[in-house]
Amino acid sequence: MHRYRNTSGESGVVAYDIDSDSITIQFTGGDRYLYTERSAGAENIARMQELAREGRGLSTFVSQHIRSRYARKLN
What we know:
This is KTSC domain-containing protein. By secondary structure, this protein is an alpha+beta fold. The chain has 3 helices and 5 strands; from the N terminus they run ββββαααβ. Helices cover 35% and strands 29% of the residues.
């Protein structure tokens, strides 16, 4: 997994992995979730991937727009 830059210093995200049609996010508590185009929508996955690369806003986007639309919990 890639370390999330967390430019705000307050993110609940610590790491992520990007695949062509999905993103896996690890949160501060250690839980990892897989989000796919099927579970969260292609536009949302693209935005989440962009935010992950930028290192800012990913946790907020997930909590405001995605919520529990993950494909599965990986832990």
